[in-house]
């Protein structure tokens, strides 16, 4: 595995864990634990990007919160969707990045909700659980409460991650950008042909 890939993957996992711990300690109603995953998906091949997501979930179970490992599939799904979005150029413009963030959010809701309901009964991190509790108190079922609560949280969390990815990619040093992007830049650059003196 290339040094660049290892460096980016390790940094992305560290970023996810740091932000996830921050959100957990402050009991924020958002996760902010997948920014590194989305960024890795935009910079790395698919397998290393998915590895970032899986690694984040497993390590976060020890460092952040024991609820994290069962959501490894969510992080993996986020990486795969973000990878696809990146390859279609979604992170080249802020508004397409924002739209892509909502696609990632919907993916996270669909993959996470069954885990939250079936495994944890709707109770996970305190900030998230508080939002679910509001819907439960309003007479909604556990499934309805989790789906609605998750959508509210994810519609803030994942578009934010996508916008941050867009901003980082704009300022990232060229040696860290994907090889295909550098190749495209070289192809787009004007070339001059030497002319023979008359």
Give me the secondary-structure topology.
Elements: H1 3-25, H2 35-43, H3 46-63, H4 72-87, H5 94-119, H6 126-137, H7 142-171, H8 179-188
Helix pairs in contact: 1-2, 1-3, 2-3, 2-4, 2-7, 3-4, 4-5, 5-7, 6-7
Structure description:
With 198 residues, the chain is mainly α. The chain has one domain (3-178): Arp2/3 complex 21 kDa subunit ARPC3. It is built from 8 helices and no strands. The chain has helices at residues 3-25, 35-43, 46-63, 72-87, 94-119, 126-137, 142-171, 179-188. Helix 1 (3-25) runs antiparallel to helix 2, helix 1 runs parallel beside helix 3 (46-63) and helix 5 (94-119) packs antiparallel against helix 7 (142-171). It is globular, with a radius of gyration of 19 Å. The termini are far apart. Residues 181-198 have low confidence and may be disordered.
Structure at a glance:
The protein has 198 residues and is mainly α. It has a single domain (3-178), classed as Arp2/3 complex 21 kDa subunit ARPC3, CATH 1.10.1760.
């Amino acid at each position: 595995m290339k040094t660049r890939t290892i460096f980016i993957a390790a940094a992305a996992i560290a970023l996810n864990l740091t932000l996830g711990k921050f959100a957990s300690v402050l009991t924020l109603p958002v996760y902010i634990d997948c920014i590194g995953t989305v960024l890795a998906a935009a910079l790395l091949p698919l397998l290393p990007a998915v590895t970032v997501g899986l690694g984040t979930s497993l390590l976060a179970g020890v460092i952040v919160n024991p609820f994290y490992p069962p959501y490894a599939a969510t992080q993996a799904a986020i990486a795969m969707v973000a990878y696809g979005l990146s390859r279609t150029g979604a992170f080249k413009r802020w508004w397409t990045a924002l739209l892509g963030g909502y696609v990632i959010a919907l993916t996270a809701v669909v993959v996470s909700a069954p885990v939250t309901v079936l495994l944890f009964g709707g109770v996970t991190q305190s900030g998230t659980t508080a939002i679910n509790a509001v819907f439960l108190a309003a007479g909604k079922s556990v499934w309805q409460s989790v789906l609605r609560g998750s959508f509210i949280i994810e519609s803030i969390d994942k578009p934010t991650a996508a916008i941050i990815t867009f901003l980082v990619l704009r300022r990232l040093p060229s040696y860290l950008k994907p090889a295909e992007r550098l190749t495209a830049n070289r192809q787009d650059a004007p070339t001059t042909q030497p002319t023979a003196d008359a």
